[in-house]
Amino acid sequence: MTDFCTLFDSNYLTRGLAMYESLKAQCTEFHLYVCAFDDTSYEILTRLRLPHVTVIPLQEIEHARLLAVKPTRTRGEYCWTCTSHVIQHVIDTFGLPEVTYVDADLCFYANPALLLEEFKLAGASVLLTEHRYTPAYDMSRQSGLYCVQFMTFKADERGLAALAWWQERCLEWCYNRVEDGKFGDQKYLDDWTSRFDGVHVLRHPGGGVAPWNVQQYRIELGDGRVAANGVPLVFYHFHDYKFYEDGSHYLGKYLLEKKIIELLYRPYVLALQRAKDAVRTVCPDFNAGASQKVRKLTTPFWNLMNRLKGTYNVYSSL
Predict the structure, then answer these.
(1) Which terminal residue of the chain, N or C, has fewer Cβ atoms less than 10 Å from its own Cβ?
(2) Taking a C-beta distance cutoff of 8 angstroms, is the pair 145, 193 a contact?
(3) Is 2-313 a CATH 3.20.20.70 domain?
């Protein structure tokens, strides 16, 4: 049994469900603990009665110290603040020997056991994944060397020490800005390989593929599987993807080859639609998650610029 945890609200509900369905398609035995960050997501997830899922209401993890800082953080900042506390809560409440945190906007294309086997063989207690930025998009100094997207903690002395330290730092400061060498919950990870014993940095190239580094990969489809540089693509992080009420889609500020859009983004958009259809079986009027466009781009020039920056319509231009 492989145990995962995540957190999301109703705005990320379809992403979270698409991630869950991809896990279900790739894993033979797993359990996913979901901290629902608002009442709507909690009620819908409870009604869906998903196999291999335990739904945790936000109130269950909100201890007094979290509640004290909550008014000082935006909704996104508070999610970042709570991540380490959700991990701790899941370990403590369900008596897990280890748990892997996964972001809601990941999608799995192969069994994550490929990554966790490397972690096991390393004899480590904490697993980190690097950003592996393409040089043109390198934000290491601002956003950190490592990405809080796929992290494993063992419930042993070394793993719990790192987790406890991270919890304290996020309670002290966790904001969506760069300040004194900090950024959100993420820059705190930069020195963990020297600060703590038992920290392993993932080497498998199929884990941690994302729009900021996919330019370094040869993404191909063979024998029904997606490969990245000749090895199985385990997961892709759909960071900065947005969908709009008019049916258009923003793929982010990064350059993406057409093959990547066809093999990864188009199927992901369809997976989100299936997730929305599933939600509407228990909540017919559900329509959360769509972003608002900052401006309407209608002239030929702006349509071209919009296209270059990554905005497409899934039914035509995508």
Answers:
(1) N
(2) no
(3) no
Give the pLDDT mean for 49-78. 98
HSE value, Cβ hemisphere, 13 Å, CA-based, for 201: 13
Residue 302: is its pLDDT beyond 60?
A: no
Q: Give the tokens for residue 233.
A: 């693509």
DSSP-derived pairing of the beta strands 248-250 and 311-313: antiparallel
Q: What is the 3-state secondary structure (H, E, C) of the chain?
A: CEEEEEEECHHHHHHHHHHHHHHHHHCCCEEEEEEECCHHHHHHHHHHCCCCEEEEEHHHHCCHHHHHHHHHCCHHHHHHHHHHHHHHHHHHHHCCCEEEEECCCEEECCCCHHHHHHHHHHCCCEEECECCCCHHHCCHHHHCCECCCEEEEECCHHHHHHHHHHHHHHHHCCCCCEECCEECCCHHHCCHHHHCCCEEECCCCCCCECCCCHHHCCEEEECCEEEECCEECCEEECCCCEEECCCEEECCCCCCCHHHHHHHHHHHHHHHHHHHHHHHCCCCCCCCCCECCCCCCCCHHHHHHHHHHCEEECCCCC
The domain ranges of the chain are 2-313
Band of the pLDDT at 45, cuts 50, 70, 90?
A: very high
pLDDT digits (tens, 9 = 90+) for 258-271: 999 999 999 999 99
pTM of the shown model = 0.93
311 band by pLDDT with thresholds 50, 70 and 90: low
Residue 285 has pLDDT above 60, yes or no: yes
Nearest 5°: the CA angle 28, 87, 102 is 50
- Closest to 34 measured CA to CA, from 17, 61, 53: 53
pLDDT at 297 over 80: no
Q: What is the pLDDT of residue 309?
A: 53
Average pLDDT of the residues in 197-222:
96
pLDDT at 300: 42
